[in-house]
């Protein structure tokens, strides 16, 4: 099959999957205790039945569940994610507002962890058993085992509170009105701590995976053959070992990529990053059904999309995969 | 004719105020909207309190002060309230503010949207504007607390020219609120901040002093403390950080802490005890719970010494508080005695904490500890905000933490939790415990409509004495949420609603 055919077949299946996910999510969220009208009324500090009735009517919660589902699915099919009554805005708009911040954060973390992870993994494998290998693997273990939340708080304590080098939270300096390059620098500064916090765990995972995989492949016969041919170590590592050892890392990277949307709830919360993970979390707490469903759906779409991308990357890295199927 | 008149000149400079500067205030959680006529939750009141105004403000003694109204009169029979409005007031879009806006807000808009005000408006026969600068409220019968209903969170005045004849809830103007207040809405970056700027045309000369106010949305309590430490924000409104962080922040150089600014709301915390079923349906059990708890310890340890142990349903900072009631001190022996008398068989009871952070969780743990010491088998049953609303409003609990604002008068913020006509499934803000005492209900109703404060005082003293013996709920503590701010910010908390209208008068010493 050509890559194009693969993509078409996968995309058509993806649409059905997404629809099924949307319906499943709908029932899941309605099964949770609590309803948005009571939460909203409750926050006002006072509510009578008239108010709760009004809210239910506005939210469409006074209608039977199947009617609500029908409306929701009909909307989805027309690419309409519905309206957030709580926030008084279309869900698509709310998500579009927050998505760039999340993508910036998660993509940075993704690239940083992939690059660092593979680089350290390859380096450690090349020096297996030596002190530098021990240092690298120990650090990887540490970052793998440390809770993200604690790590984030410590990073803020050290780099923001003690040294004052980096901003501890937020997306950019509020009220500074930077434009152009100054704004890019400002956002980049704000990005460092959350992106590192989010990326360290996967850096550790990639590194361990790359190291183990490199060592395994380096024992195989074709590597011995290459050595016997008299190729240099660097060339063998780059062209023969790494290329074969990278596949498991790609698999994992595909998994991480699936979390690019909505996978950063904790980091976004600690660092007050105005992204979609927080939007989801806050909407969940308020039972803002349409918004939660919208974020879930967009996340699911991303997971499916990245799965397809991962498959394509497989075929590029290892052409045998395409040939076999 | 009873006349209340306070010259606006009272607000004249004592120290030399300096104009200019910006103030960064934490707001949490992010408000669902800023149209104060539609949403009145805490964060909305905090931010929109600078944009919208009502007829009156109240000082820390709950004495009314001018706001949109410059003077007012209450007739001797307590039935007619006449307000003279300030002249030269403009809406933020430049339109003139008139008495018609007040009539529209109170009689049309808020009647439809504001549950709490609707209860007070039930006493109102008519609202009229005899001339553009005068508004007259005529009541059906005297209603003592009515003079307290003109606070900004209770009766925000909204622009008639924008809302008349529209679908209020879905009016696009809700996204860009237009008020008469000292600050104008500039920008709201969702998830990050809300930006307000000085209203240059504000009708009080010289006010406001600040150029701009930023409300910063920071979801994590520890991050909020850090934001204050690093100087990113200047003000942590009550409840922004966990209580154990307060002493640490207060010790920093140039940091001030105040417990003032909660007199109007006077939040009182209690545990609803399910009066319908289970051990808590037994009065002796409820009294045993009161004796079992060491509430002084809880105040000192869980709340770091902030607040005051409650003696009954009415907070000591509001009008008509009486201390002539049975005092439930920490007396485990007495509690055991009562439990033995009722024949408590060890049936387990659940405690539902408020899902508002660690402090509340620990409070529930302290209660559980005290209860187990007298042999009550209690379990903590945690939940998120929506789950808490569901469980309490569906009466699915044994003991549940809550707190309620008192709004300056027992008839506005207290009786709603105790009278039988407020037993209604589905809303967590009424008589959730299911307390029925019809004789007392009549006294609550009568006390609300008495004309003189002296009569009301006597009536409420009697009510407090009686209800404290019944223990329909376990009164815990009068909460104060300390405001933490930099000392160079002056006049931030000057009224009974604290920083909800604080930026109006605040100024920064350079």
TrEMBL record, chain A:
Transmembrane segments: 103-129, 141-167, 187-207, 246-272, 292-314
SUPFAM superfamilies found in the cross-reference section: MetI-like
Signal peptide annotation: none
Start and end residues of each ABC transmembrane type-1 domain: 99-314
Protein's membrane topology: Multi-pass membrane protein
InterPro entries in UniProt: BPD_transp_1_N, MetI-like, MetI-like_sf
Gene3D superfamilies (UniProt xref): MetI-like
Domain of life: Bacteria
Localization (cell): Cell membrane
Family: Belongs to the binding-protein-dependent transport system permease family.
Name of the protein in its database record: ABC transporter permease
Phylogenetic classification of the source organism: Bacteria, Pseudomonadati, Pseudomonadota, Alphaproteobacteria, Rhodospirillales
């Amino acid at each position: 099959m050509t890559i194009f055919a693969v993509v078409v077949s996968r995309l058509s299946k993806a649409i059905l999957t997404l629809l099924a996910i949307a319906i499943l999510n709908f029932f899941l969220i309605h099964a949770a205790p609590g309803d948005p009208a009571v939460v909203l009324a409750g926050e006002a500090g006072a509510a009578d039945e008239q108010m709760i009735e009004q809210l239910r009517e506005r939210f469409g919660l006074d209608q039977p569940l199947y009617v609500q589902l029908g409306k929701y699915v009909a909307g989805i099919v027309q690419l309409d994610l519905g309206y957030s009554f709580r926030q008084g805005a279309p869900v698509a708009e709310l998500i579009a507002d927050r998505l760039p911040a999340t993508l910036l954060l998660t993509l940075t973390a993704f690239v940083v962890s992939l690059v660092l992870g593979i680089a350290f993994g390859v380096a450690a494998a090349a020096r297996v058993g030596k002190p530098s290998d021990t240092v690298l693997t120990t650090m990887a273990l540490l970052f793998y085992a440390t809770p993200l939340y604690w790590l984030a708080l410590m990073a803020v304590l050290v780099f923001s509170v003690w040294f004052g080098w980096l901003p501890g939270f937020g997306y950019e300096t509020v009220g500074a009105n930077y434009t152009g390059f100054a704004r890019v620098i400002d956002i980049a500064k704000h990005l460092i701590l959350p992106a590192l916090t989010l990326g360290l765990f996967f850096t550790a995972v990639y590194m361990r995976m790359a190291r183990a995989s490199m060592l395994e492949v380096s024992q195989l016969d074709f590597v011995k053959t290459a050595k016997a041919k008299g190729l240099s170590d660097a060339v063998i590592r780059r062209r023969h070992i790494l290329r074969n050892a990278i596949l498991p890392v790609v698999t994992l990277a595909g998994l991480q990529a699936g979390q690019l949307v909505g996978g950063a709830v904790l980091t976004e919360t600690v660092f007050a990053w105005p992204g979609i993970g927080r939007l989801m979390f806050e909407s969940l707490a308020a039972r803002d059904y349409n918004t939660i469903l919208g974020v879930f759906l967009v996340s699911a779409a991303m997971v499916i999309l990245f799965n397809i991308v991962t498959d394509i990357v497989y075929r590029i890295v290892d052409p045998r995969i395409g040939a076999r199927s | 004719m009873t006349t209340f008149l306070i010259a606006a000149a009272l607000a004249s400079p004592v120290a030399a105020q300096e104009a200019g500067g910006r103030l960064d205030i934490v707001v949490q959680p992010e408000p669902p909207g800023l149209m104060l006529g539609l949403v009145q939750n805490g964060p909305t009141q905090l931010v929109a309190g600078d944009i919208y105004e009502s007829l009156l403000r109240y000082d820390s003694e709950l004495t009314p002060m001018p706001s949109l109204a410059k003077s007012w009169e209450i007739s001797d029979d307590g039935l007619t309230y006449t307000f003279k409005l300030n002249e030269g007031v403009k809406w933020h879009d430049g339109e003139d503010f008139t008495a018609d806006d007040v009539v529209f807000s109170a009689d049309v808009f808020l009647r439809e949207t504001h549950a709490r005000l609707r209860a007070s408006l039930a006493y109102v026969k008519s609202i009229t504007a005899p001339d553009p600068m005068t508004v007259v409220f005529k009541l059906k019968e005297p209603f003592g607390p009515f003079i307290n209903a003109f606070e900004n969170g209770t009766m925000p005045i909204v622009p008639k020219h924008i809302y008349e004849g529209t679908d209020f809830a879905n009016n696009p103007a809700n996204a860009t609120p237009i008020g008469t207040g000292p600050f104008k809405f500039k920008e709201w970056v969702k998830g990050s901040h809300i930006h307000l700027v000085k209203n240059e045309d504000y009708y009080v000369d010289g006010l406001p002093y600040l150029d701009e106010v930023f409300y910063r949305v920071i979801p994590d309590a520890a991050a909020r403390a850090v934001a204050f430490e690093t100087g990113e924000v200047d003000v942590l409104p009550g409840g922004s950080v966990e209580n154990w962080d307060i002493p640490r922040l207060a010790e920093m150089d140039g940091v001030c802490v105040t417990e003032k600014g909660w007199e109007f709301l006077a939040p009182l915390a209690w545990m609803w005890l399910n009066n319908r079923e289970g051990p808590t349906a037994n009065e002796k059990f409820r009294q045993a719970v009161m004796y079992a708890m060491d509430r002084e310890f809880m105040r000192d340890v869980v709340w770091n010494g902030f607040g005051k142990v409650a003696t009954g349903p009415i907070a000591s900072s509001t009008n008509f508080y009486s201390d002539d009631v049975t005092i439930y001190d920490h007396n485990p022996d007495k509690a055991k005695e009562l439990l033995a008398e009722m024949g408590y068989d060890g049936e387990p009871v659940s405690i539902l904490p408020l899902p508002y952070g660690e402090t509340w969780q620990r409070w529930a743990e302290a209660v559980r500890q005290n209860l187990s010491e007298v042999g009550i088998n209690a379990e903590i049953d945690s939940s998120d905000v929506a789950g808490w609303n569901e469980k309490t409003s569906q009466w699915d609990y044994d003991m549940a933490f809550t707190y309620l604002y008192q709004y300056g008068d027992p008839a506005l913020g207290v009786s709603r939790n105790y009278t039988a006509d407020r037993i209604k499934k589905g809303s967590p803000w009424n008589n959730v415990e299911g307390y029925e005492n019809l004789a007392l209900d009549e006294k609550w109703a009568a006390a609300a409509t008495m004309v003189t404060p002296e009569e009301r005082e006597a009536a409420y003293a009697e009510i407090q004495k009686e209800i404290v013996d019944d223990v329909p709920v376990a009164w815990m503590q009068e909460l104060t949420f300390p405001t933490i701010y930099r000392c160079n910010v002056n006049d931030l908390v000057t009224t009974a609603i604290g920083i909800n209208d604080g930026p109006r008068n605040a100024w920064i010493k350079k």
